[in-house]
Design a protein that fits this description.
The N terminus is likely disordered. About 55% of the residues lie in helices and about 10% in strands. It has 6 helices and 4 strands.
Length: about 220
C-alpha cells in the first residue's frame, strides 16, 4: 500500500493501489478494515513462504523459456543467403540459443532441469547442444562442425598465408531444438502448477498464476 494511487489494468477490473498518505484520510472504519485485510494477507504469505520462494526461483526459468521461444521463432524466419552477413546473423542466433538453453539447464535447484526430465527422443539433441556450446561456442575447443586450415602460396619468392575456415550450421536451427523448447515450456508450466497446488493446500486459499506478463527492462547508466 505504499504506491501512488492508480488503477490497475485497463480500468475495468476495479482494483486500486492506495498509498498510506491517502488511506489516513479515509473514515476510521475503512482504515481498520483495510489494515485487517492487509494483516490477514501478510499471515497467509508468511505461511506460504517456502512455496513462494520456489516460485520466485522458477520465474527466472519462465523468462529463459520465453527467450528461447523468441530465438526459435527468429531462427525459423531465417532465409539462407550465401553472404558473410547472413552467416554471421545465423551464428549470432545460434550462439544466443545455445547459451540460453545451457543457462536454463544449469539453473540450479528450483530453476533448472535435468536431462531425465526430457522426453527420451530429445535427449540426444540435448547432449548435442551441450557439446556444441562447450566445445565450439564457449571454450573454442575442437568441434566437428568447425574446420580451420591455412593455405600457403609462393609468389615471387614470397610466402602468402591464406587462412580458411569451414563452419557447419543448422539453417534455421535444428528441428529438434523447436521440440525441446516446447518440452521445456511444458516442464516448467507443470512445475509451476504443482507449486500453486501446494499453496492452495497449505493456505486454504485460491492461488492463480497470472499469464502473459513479462519482466520490465530496467535501464542502467
Amino acid at each position: 500500500m505504499n504506491n501512488d494511487p492508480k488503477e490497475e489494468g485497463d480500468g475495468n477490473d476495479g482494483y486500486y493501489f492506495l498509498s498510506d498518505e491517502v488511506i489516513k484520510y479515509l473514515p476510521r472504519e475503512w482504515q481498520a478494515a483495510i489494515e485487517a485485510r492487509a494483516e490477514e494477507g501478510r499471515k497467509v504469505i508468511e505461511t506460504a513462504d517456502k512455496e513462494l520462494r520456489q516460485l520466485s526461483k522458477l520465474s527466472l526459468s519462465f523468462y529463459h523459456v520465453t527467450v528461447l521461444k523468441y530465438i526459435r521463432d527468429r531462427l525459423a524466419e531465417y532465409k539462407f543467403e550465401a553472404t558473410i552477413e547472413a552467416f554471421q546473423h545465423l551464428d549470432m542466433l545460434t550462439t544466443a540459443f545455445l547459451t540460453t538453453y545451457v543457462r536454463l539447464f544449469n539453473g540450479g535447484s528450483g530453476s533448472g532441469f535435468s536431462r531425465s526430465a526430457l522426453p527420451q527422443p530429445l535427449r540426444v539433441a540435448h547432449d548435442e547442444i551441450l557439446d556444441m556450446r562447450n566445445k565450439r561456442y564457449a571454450h573454442a575447443e575442437d568441434h566437428h562442425s568447425v574446420d580451420c586450415n591455412i593455405e600457403i602460396q609462393e609468389e615471387d619468392g614470397n610466402f602468402i598465408v591464406i587462412p580458411s575456415m569451414r563452419l557447419g550450421f543448422y539453417v534455421g536451427g535444428s528441428n529438434d531444438w523447436a521440440k525441446l523448447v516446447d518440452a521445456l515450456d511444458e516442464i516448467f508450466a507443470e512445475r509451476g502448477e504443482k507449486i500453486v497446488e501446494r499453496l492452495k493446500a497449505r493456505t486454504g486459499r485460491e492461488w492463480i498464476m497470472a499469464e502473459g506478463r513479462y519482466p520490465e527492462p530496467i535501464p542502467t547508466t
